[in-house]
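Re: your question from the hallway

Yes, I did run it. Sequences:
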Amino acid sequence: MPALTVHHIGYLVKKLDKAIQTFHSLGYETEQDTVYDKFRKVNICFLIKDGCRVELVSPVSEDSVVSGLMKKYKNCPYHICYETADFEADYAALTADGFLAIDTPTPAPALGGREVVFLNSPVIGMIELIR
Ligand code: NI
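Structure:
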């Protein structure tokens, strides 16, 4: 069984500035100001409350990786991201367990350039794994 640690909950939002204000009104604090992710064409802001980190993801253009999701689901949490002590082993364990890679490990500017990969489970939907 993979040994994963929750890093953040990815939250899709259309209006980033208003979403930040609303999360602030719920008691979240900005952990990291907005960073543009050129690989995915999204703006990303990290907020935190009670040790729970939320990643606000907002599409910047029509061809961003989340534009389709935004049309389908509107504003909503859509993935949980995990850190792993042994990426290769856990990645292999997850794919053996039915998770399908959606992309290949790609740098995440909002995470200091660390690589992330998204996987989809037919049972629980999308997760993200930090390399
Ligand atoms: Ni994420």
